[in-house]
Design a protein that fits this description.
With 128 residues, this protein is of the alpha+beta class. The protein has helices at 47-64, 85-95, and strands at residues 2-5, 20-23, 26-32, 35-36, 41-42, 72-79, 102-107, 117-124. It has one domain (2-124): 60s Ribosomal Protein L30, Chain: A (2-Layer Sandwich), CATH 3.30.1330.40. β4 and β5 form a beta hairpin. It starts with a strand and ends with a strand. The mean pLDDT is 96.
């Protein structure tokens, strides 16, 4: 019943994990950072560029699993600087519509590749 989800439209795993794992109607999305899939380099510029790339990466994995960002029921956001929380909210509103997923946002000391934002989540699909 466990199905590994993988797509070339999101960054390839840089460790011992899958991009996502589907179990029944639930899809567990691994953390995504602002890597550009084609180059495996972080999006440059302001944090907003990396936040947009994270949502693009999550969207690609959701689509590979048969869903969309709108199917995310729980989103976890990790920031190295909570002063960017308002920026995350502003950009998130461009990718999600109500009802919004449950969410947590936490500050962490550091993230992979020395980036400043990472997100993971849980998606619930209406059909199997």
């Amino acid at each position: 019943m466990r199905q590994v989800i993988s797509t070339e439209n999101a960054p390839q795993a840089i460790g011992t994990y899958s991009q996502a794992v589907r179990f029944g109607n639930t899809v567990y999305l691994s953390g995504q950072i602002g890597l550009i899939p084609a180059t495996m380099e972080l999006a440059e510029g302001e944090i907003s560029e990396r936040i947009h790339q994270v949502f693009k990466n999550l969207s690609a994995v959701c689509e590979a699993a048969g869903g969309s960002l709108q199917d995310i029921v729980k989103l976890n956001i990790f920031l190295t600087d909570m002063s960017h929380f308002a920026t995350v909210n502003e950009i998130m509103a461009q990718y999600f519509k109500e009802p919004y997923p449950a969410r947590a946002a936490v500050a962490v000391k550091e993230l992979p590749k020395n980036t400043d934002v990472e997100m993971d989540g849980v998606m619930a699909l209406s059909s199997y």
